[in-house]
Amino acid sequence: MAEQSSVRATVQGYYDALDRDDIDAALDYFGGEILYRRPGYPPITGLEGLRDYYTRGRKLASGRHVIREVVIDGTSAAAHGTFEGELKEGGRTTMGFAAFFRFDNARDRIVEHTTYFFTPAV
Q1: What is the C-alpha to C-alpha distance for residues 59 and 87, in angstroms, rounded to an integer?
Q2: How is residue 114 annotated by DSSP?
Q3: Which CATH number fits the domain that encloses residue 93?
Q4: pLDDT in tens, 67-76
Q5: Which residues make Cβ contacts (< 8 Å) with residue 97, sequence separation at least 6?
């Protein structure tokens, strides 16, 4: 049970760091060989690629992630919730999301992260 609460704390800590705009703290949750997939972007690899995305490529300016649930299975976790905040180009957004995480075997660093958004697409 302690391992599951640690994974939950890692997922929540990552989103809390993003909400504080503390990119260094957010990156601390990831292993160096991170693979991040996000709709509309090519796969992002490595910590420097992720730093570049968060500092230059991300369309969100500020806001808050509210995690509704985290489901854990071994070294994988899935979370869903909502994001509400400001866009860099102006305006506000509220959007649901689902995120999938894979952890290293020690379960203390995220090595793969995929995010999907709840928007009309088809």
Answers
A1: 6
A2: E
A3: 3.10.450.50
A4: 999 999 999 9
A5: 65, 80, 81, 82, 83, 115, 116, 117, 118
Lowest mean pLDDT among 73-77, 107-111, 113-117: 107-111
Beta strands in the chain (DSSP E): 30-37, 44-45, 60-73, 76-87, 92-103, 110-118
DSSP 3-state assignment of 6? helix
Burial of residue 117 (number of CB atoms within 10 Å: 0-12, 13-18, 19+) = middle
CB atoms within 10 A of CB 20: 11
Helix (H) or strand (E) holding 54: none
Ramachandran sector of residue 19 (left: φ over 0; alpha: ψ -120 to 50; beta: rest):
alpha
What domain range includes position 52? 2-116
What is the enclosing helix (H) or strand (E) of 74? none
DSSP 8-state class, residue 57: I
What is the total count of domains within the chain? 1
For residue 16 the two structure tokens come to 């809390």
HSE-up (13 A, CA, CB side) for residue 105:
0
